[in-house]
Amino acid sequence: MTERHVIAVLVDNEPGVLARVIGLFSGRGYNIESLTVSEVDAEAGLSRINVVTIGTPMIIEQIKNQLDRLVPVHSVRDLTEEGPHVETELALLKVAGQGDKRVEALRIADIFGAKVDDTTLESFIFRLDGQTEKIDRFIGLMKPLGLVEVARTGAVAISRGQEGI
Amino acid sequence: MSQEMTGSEIVLRALVDQGVDTVFGYPGGAVLPIYDALHVQNSIRHILVRQEGGAVHAAEGYARSTGKVGVVLVTSGPGATNAVTGLTDALMDSVPVVCLTGQVPTHLIGNDAFQEADTTGITRPCTKHNYLVKDIDGLARTVHEAFYVARSGRPGPVVIDLPKDILQGKGSYTPPSVNGHRSYKPKRKGDIDRIEEAAAAMAQAERPLFYCGGGVINAGPKASHLLTELVKLTGFPCTLTLMGLGALPASSKQFLGMVGMHGTYESNLAMHHCDLMINIGARFDDRVTGKLDEFAPHSKKIHVDIDPSSINKNVRADIPIVGDAAHVIEDLTKVWKARQYRADRKKLDAWWAQIDEWRGRDCLKYQSSDTLIKPQYALERLRELTKGRDDVFITTEVGQHQMWAAQFLPFEKPNHWMTSGGLGTMGYGLPAAMGVQVAHPDALVIDVAGEASVLMNIQEMSTVAQYRLPVKIFILNNEYMGMVRQWQELLHGGRYSESYMDSLPDFVKLAESFGAVGLRAEKPADVDGVIEEMIAVDKAVIADILVDKAENCFPMIPSGAAHHKMLLGPDDQADNPISEEGMVLV
After folding, report:
1. Vertex B231, ends B225 and B236: CA angle to 5°?
2. How does pLDDT run across B443-462, given as a tens digit for each residue?
3. Residue B579: left if φ>0, alpha if ψ -120 to 50, beta else—which one?
4. Nearest CA in chain B to A73
5. Given CA atoms B459, B461, B466, B467 in this order, what sign does their dihedral have?
6. For position B582, what pLDDT does the model report?
7. Chain B residues within an 8 Å CB radius of A68
8. I need a labelling partner for B131 at 20 to 30 A (CA). Which of A134, B67, B184, B278 fits?
9. Which residues of A touch B183 (CB under 8 A)?
10. Does A62 contact B307 at a Cβ distance shorter than 8 Å?
11. Nearby residues of B120 by Cβ (< 8 Å), 6 or more positions away
């Protein structure tokens, strides 16, 4: 049985570190659903990689152990396994159209709580954050209404409670 | 304020402070500054190989026979790419190696400059870690860190890519730091609760078996000593992997021989039927497990490994213990003694009776011949004629001869057996033997070779000549890539596609052309004389042993089969054709 896991990896912010992580996934045939990376502590030179992956429990355990033995990796946390966590993703959607379709797009955006970041007479750029499935649903609805382009960040997540990574 | 030095001087100073006395390398444009600095010092000896691949294998041989880190120095571009096979080999077999590669000056990186290659990119998946030094202030620290990473935890190869302008620039030297690494801190001590649990399981076992591997060798000679004590104390049988040979003396009555595809019948059957498997420093490699879903189906498994990613990778462990083999064996022994555990004598005796019955099959027996030299016979004679010496180091190439060497040669101590296990690199043995001989100038170093493998790095005969290394190359010459031929016979209907070694050199003359001694044995009666002369001569020797061309290596677990489905010899082979399923595996 495969499972979806959100894994947070704290790494030294140094050249090649992302290539190490990605190379590990491709070299060993693991899946990457999404991956985000950004510096999170400039003073300590640390970046955080949030990776969503799918695999059997044995593969998920392997992924964590393989990540953990990379030299520049400070810590690996499986947020899915550890319990309650907040997970969100950001998407920008460009929807073009006129007349009823345009009105309907704006109405659905409002229902989803998407923000209008930019508009022209023929198009909108919507910004929506939230769970991956919510964004999937929103994109699905926008398709017949003139969806032109999507940019998504992939999920970022953080555990609940007072403990840090 | 410390004194200003050039980057090259910093590198050499750091090597000296890391205890390095020997470097295997080959110069080129990008590393000329280091070679210049090498020229004016006496602390480090440089061994000039004939191709960079040879340098890495030589460093591996040096490292595995001494327990120290092997050091390689090569130039940019082709120097680095030629090192890739050796680096991968060292990664697969957990050999500590630091490889310094030259690089084009930093301002040219990315410009497709002459002899530029993306060395860190190319070597990322085949090293434990790698560095590109872009700032001279970090140079010394990087070299020290590279040595720490190479030797700690599960050892492995580390590349340091050194742009030429960094080597020529000026900076200050930083001595090795006593502070640990900021992120890489492998666990050495095993969890004591788990060790208690393991000891309790051992006390209750009816059919226990130690299954130990290269992790015990890598944990230092002390680990092998402790293992030998524990095996004695418990009275349990013990099998070793290809990489683990020497961790328990081959002369121990409790040693069942090697396990795996060409392991002994008693080892593999004991693996299949045991009720408790105590794996220390082995990784359930596919060459050992055979068919995974039929692997040791009745056993509880203890798995001790310093690398957490080895645990639960192929086989689920019931009692996983992350830690250094020496520490864990020591703690396990303490618990066993403190709790006054002892094996149930009656049940253990019954288990040994079963094992002795399997032993009675005499799985390594072969059909002897008066006219043809059987490869097994040649190795038996080598074993007899080197008996009693404790300074014999064996390296091998890859193939049938390697498996026969593992089966027929006795390893009493760790670090005396150097073979390419994980990667299976033909051409490993000759350069590895050079590295061993450099580290142990007075020892008897023998490369048990095949005629096909040895040709892959035969250029290193020139290095052997230059440094007067008295290595002995013992070629079991069957004029075939023997293992390829064996698989073609067993799996591909005897269609020997491209496995015949045509146009071989005259190895006697080849030896002589390099100033070495060439010997040849054509019939069984020649073998003893050739071996005796090979040992007696204080020079490099190529002994060309013309063996039976059709001999196959048995016992054998066909790929895709379980342990209890071993083929014991040519007769078995006819009765048990290999399944389609097995054919797709390697």
Report:
1. 165
2. 999 999 999 999 999 999 99
3. beta
4. B183
5. positive
6. 66
7. 308-309
8. B67
9. 12, 71-74
10. no
11. A16, B130, B131, B132, B159, B161
